[in-house]
Specification:
The chain contains ten helices and 28 strands. By secondary structure, it is α+β, with helices and mostly antiparallel strands. Among the domains are: 104 residues, no CATH class; 120 residues, Immunoglobulin-like, CATH 2.60.40; 229 residues, no CATH class. The strands form six sheets. Strands 6, 7, 8, 10, 12, 15, 17, 18, 20 and 22 form a ten-stranded mixed β-sheet that branches.
Length: 658
Amino acid sequence: MRTEIKPRVPQVRCYKCGSPAIRSLCHHCWRPGCVTHVVPMPRSGAMLLGREGGGRGLGTDASHHCQECGHAVAGYPLALGAGGLGLMTVGLITLLLNPVAGLALVVAGVLLAGWVYLTARRRTAQRRSGLPLALQPKINDVRLTERLGVDITLAPEGRYTTSLRPVEGDISMDLVFGRPDRDRLNRYARKRTSSRDTRFCAGCLVLHGPVDIAPQPDLPGPVRLLEGTTGAYPVFRAEDPHASSPFPLALTYRLAREPVIKEGPVWVTPSLVAESDRRALELDIQWVDLGPRDKRLSLDVIELIQLRYPVSWGNVVKASHRAIQSTSAEDCGGPEALRRVEWRQLLPTEQQRQARQLKLMIRFEGKIRSQDRVSGRLEATMKGALSGLEKVRLYSSLGGRRDDWRGAAIRTGIEADFKLSLGSIRYEDVLIVPEHQAREDDRNTDEFDVIPNDDMVIELTNALSEDYYVKRVIEHPPRSGGRADHVQRYWDIAGRRYDGVYPIEFHMVLTGEEVHRGGIRPVAGRTKITIVVQGAYTNDEMKARIKGEWDALHDLTRDTMMVLASRRPKIDAPDAPPGTAHNGSSQSAHNGSSGPAHDGLSGPARNGSSGMGADPSRRRLLERLGKMDEALVDGRISLEQYEEMKARAEQEFGDWEA
């Protein structure tokens, strides 16, 4: 059989049975006890031996004693006292038979009982003479705060470290002596004919719960006696006394064993706001619940967030959550003076409490440099004690628990000092090529001698699909132009290309006019193409890639449109075949290759007829449908667009055959 001893966190228990349910303390030895082993003096004993307290607050309270310190009469004095009472009883009965003998027995019983009573009073007075003056100060406030210090560092290479400092506890008490306490001193001095400067006891402070406190000079353990001398307080002076005197008490302690915190209790992470021209900083503040699993401590309020930043950043233009900015710079020993901005008493919303996250944004006049550093301090408060302490109770100078106050406020404070380098912070901005002013310039729009129809769109999307992902192709309904035989066409093409994990988006707008000469098929037209490229970048190299992507798209579009323009024969040529309405498709009538088209393009070197002597209109219809099938399968057009384009093509070629 193996026995394993597991250490337990100590807590205040009954000195006799070990129960944690402490009801009172013995006011002689101040040992804690349960309701069974530390008991109040009964009324009969108080009447016999006298009360130990007097005045308001103590005059009606019973003194509490353990079994070893009780004032009860026991042993042979108790037997003699009982014998004296017995003699008195027998003497009273004998008086009826023999007055002389009965009177003698009564006198003997009275003398014996009186001797026992005086002896008990004398012994009790001797034991009480060594006790200090019992006082009952008024309790204004009692606070217990445990502070967890955190040092946060973000190095220029991106290493984030969090180190914890030892937990320190503070107990502050605001007690006040008043006139009832001065009256107690007056009675005490008259009875003992002693000076007014005497020792007093104002009760006892007890820390309840599993808390392991390292012994300190002013707090040796979880039980702390409140005592002093009356000469230190003006309220006890014989001449010209004050109406009241404060009795403040400040105690500090440290834990014998530090709590295990696997993760940092709080994180402060800086980042540069995207698209801010390096002028906006965001602080991401995150925290965790601390303490045992069954008694988790949740954040109550963020009392202070202080940020110190270089003077070169200028004034704060805008900040979230009503920040307070300093008007002067401070010399903190660094290469550059620092300015300060603060937030106080921040109450997280319910959503922020659930996410355990709060974000602050600050925008400055100047630019934020990558070699800059920021520092600051964060102070937050959690309800409860990190050490596991549950309650703070005060007991009177007679040992009874005081219930005439609202109880102590128990909090855990987090004090985080941070120093953050911005050298490893990624700044992400968005570049749009061309810029807004340039997009309004017609010189960034290319114009081609190509009829704006479905063939052109399919040829262009096929070329784009080799290097880009085409997300959508939207065709808007045709509209009438400025002349009766002109029709305006409009397409919207969008897609992207990935540079590593960062996408570069493009948006292409195709507009143009078709020229009709009596038929439904256009005989001429021109197409304009505008290209806009947008992408996020974090450095100059990525910014140059976005600009280069616009150039590549521009070259690809221009080459594709020039090929289409070269395939279209001139309409006024005397030998122009009837297929001039299609960009380059008229060449297929003179192509002698046989076999089906194998890539959907209508160029002379890539599309053959379906057979020698086949109807040219029928062959062009099949080529058109094949290209639309490819576009539908690749996802470049929707099913609705496919049906609409198919119906238009069948109507167009049907009318041509007719």
